[in-house]
Amino acid sequence: MVELLSSTFRLYGQALRATWRSLTRSWMAVAALIGFALLFVGAARIAATMGMLGGLLLGVVNALLVGATLRLIEQSLSASRTIQPADLPESFGHYFWDVIGVGFVLWLPLMALEMGTQANPYGQFLSSAVMLLLFILLNPAPEVIYQVRHDSPLDIFKASYEFVVEHWIEWFLPFALFMLPILLSPSGLNAFFELSRGVGRGAGLDFLQLLLLPFTLMGGWLSYVGLDPDEQWMLLLLLTPPVATAILLFRGHLFALLRGTTRRQRLFARRMEG
Predict the structure, then answer these.
(1) What ranges in 25-122 are assigned the alpha helix state H?
(2) Is 51 exposed, middle or buried (0-12, 13-18, 19+ CB in 10 A)?
(3) Helices 153-183 and 229-260 meet at what angle, rounded to 10?
(4) Does 226 score more than 90 pLDDT?
(5) Which domain holds residue 193?
């Protein structure tokens, strides 16, 4: 167990160092995330006046922005790549159909689930359980899209499932540590389920959730250290884009490191180092 923990934290050290190197070269990705957020808010306001057509429009905008974000993260992971202003317009269109495809495959079953659980006294529990399962099994879907060869959304689901089964401890431990202030709060369990419902519903490919997740987690930490809620907003608004970018970069580096090795190989390497 000690060797497993040691090799795991060594892995996190590698991922954190690589994340810092990528972040120092990816300030343009942080700026892009701010611009994308403004575009999404504008699209949401327009979509709110268009009924069902507005929902379709917002889905298209979401796929464009998520796909562009994943493309910029993909470029940022390269050790020799610095994001340039010309990369921003070029990123649009990348992974659009992957995001649309995953969303479409999930849409019908989730709609049927919501309709089927409305009259069920245990409907809320069943719905939360399904969303939690999706949150777990499809959590690495964004990284699968830009790092794993695939031909269809089902390939993305399959690769995500296989990755989680193989690497669930190493993949979810950083998230659990980041969640501690929220989990230890009086309403922590409800907050966790709300987060998992949001992320699970879109398989991590909802642009709003890419920002809401770090926003919520940082809010939990700021409350934990005693910062007044009224004083948190400005700090959260300033920190959310760079922290969201750092989280995406860390996930990308960690995913690549985990895919490139097995737990046994990492334990052996740790033993060789003494």
Answers:
(1) 27-47, 51-77, 87-91, 96-117
(2) exposed
(3) 140
(4) no
(5) 2-273
Residue type present at position 54: G
Nearest 10 degrees: Cα torsion 13, 18, 20, 21: 150
Contacts of 77 (CB under 8 A, 6+ apart): 18, 22, 249, 252, 253, 256
> What does the pLDDT look like over 127-165, one tens digit per residue?
777 778 888 888 999 999 999 988 888 999 999 999 999
Q: How many domains does the structure of the chain reveal? A: 1
Please choose, from the candidates 148, 46, 129, 61, the residue with its C-alpha nearest in 3D space to the C-alpha of residue 100: 61
Evaluate whether 59 touches 206 at the Cβ level (below 8 Å): no
* Secondary structure letter of residue 118 according to DSSP: S
- C-alpha span between 103 and 63 (Å, rounded): 9
pTM of the model: 0.87
Residue 59: predicted pLDDT: 87
How many CA within 13 A on the CB side of residue 164?
Answer: 18
Q: How far is 217 from 205, CA to CA, in rounded Å?
A: 18
For the record, the structure tokens of 194 come out as 């709300």
